[in-house]
Amino acid sequence: MANYLTSNLAKAQAKLIQRFGSADKRFRDPAVHKLFLRNAQIMFPDYEMLRTREDRTVEAYFNEQTSRALGTGRSHNHTGGKGNSGVLTPAWTTYNDKFSISLKQADNNIYSLEEMFMNEIENTIRNFMKGLETVSSTYLFNNRSGVNVATAEGTFNGVQDVFEVAVANIERFLQIAITSMDVNEYQGMRYSVVADTVMWNRLNFQFNQGSANSTNLSFQFGGVEIIHSPDLSTLAGGLGSPYTQGFMILVPEGMIGALPWIPKQNRAGVINVENSYGAIMNPFDAQQYAMHSYMERADETATNGYTQDTLTQYELSLDIAYEHAPLSTVNETPIMAFGIV
After folding, report:
1. Buried residues in 111-122 as b, exposed as e (16+ CB within 10 A)
2. Which residues contact 159 (CB under 8 A, 6 or more apart)?
3. What integer is the mean pLDDT of 99-124?
4. pTM exceeds cut of 0.85
């Protein structure tokens, strides 16, 4: 098993997609997680080289907007203020999942050691995709804007940080939300709509009410991508307000991003007498995940191994920072929440 990590990861990776055909291996496509990943290099180019180790802080600076009301007239002794800059410090979190395999556990089993290893890898990837989808959805929800200046056909609830639209306007809910984004100066952009299950069903129904139907509601969907997030149903339900008719978050294109990272030893592949460092490509989010392993002497009779056995411990890990474009106004973000009341 000492050389299994580096010699067989490529073969394991090639089998991953077909092996997930089993019903017990199923999981939802991590659509919100992948939405963040699209913009990693746009938001923060070359961050992988800047972050040389987990404990190194990386900072990005940006010019803040200075808003002033226009004056009138001209003066010979005019004076003005100065602009300012801000800093974005990405906050990485290391996520991991672990498993172990003993050298002799397959000696008296229908499955080979390779098949057991593959099963563990499959389970680990499934756990990552489920876990990171929840983490990314929670980030969107927790970072929804506390500022929304729109007032037409709705009211911004500053306690819940949700722009509320009356159920009487439910058929034009998406149109009103996009107009609200326009008023907040995100006009002319493409939007990703992350919807809870009720809103997902509603928007899909409206999207398919085309010109052949008595009511054509499809005009609202130009430049819009709709993503279903069951996690958002649970999160919105915890607000204590009756958004049972639907809840969603609108994100302007390019305003969020995720920064995945693994240590350089895993990227290069390093083996010594104590550890093995490697990496495996996850075919579902196209990211390199760090894999670390070490061996120890063990009696594995309790887990289908044998008395004189060797146990190999494995850990897959990924550092990832979910971020949004910084704004200078306190509590304002480009992530806007909308609910039907």
Report:
1. eebeebbbbbbb
2. none
3. 89
4. no
Tell me which residue has tokens 């003993």.
Answer: 102
Q: Which residues pair with 94 in a beta bridge?
A: 319
pLDDT in tens, 102-114: 999 988 888 888 8
Contact 192, 225 (CB under 8 A): yes
Burial zone of 137 (CB within 10 Å; 0-12 exposed, 13-18 middle, 19+ buried): buried
DSSP state, residue 65: P
> Of 233, 267, 264, which is closest to residue 248 (Cα–Cα)?
233
Q: Which of 233, 306, 282, 339 is nearest to 129 (CA)?
A: 282
Region of 46 please: left (phi>0), alpha (psi -120 to 50) or beta: left
Per-residue pLDDT of 153-182, as tens digits, reads 999 999 999 999 999 998 889 999 999 999
Contact call for residues 140 and 335 (beta carbons, < 8 A): yes
- pLDDT(18) > 70: no
Minimal CA–CA distance to 175: which of 142, 150, 147?
150
> Tokens in use for 27?
């999981």
Evaluate the CA torsion angle 214, 174, 190, 234 in order and state its sign: negative
Residues 110, 113, 115, 118: what is their CA dihedral angle, to the nearest 10 degrees? 150
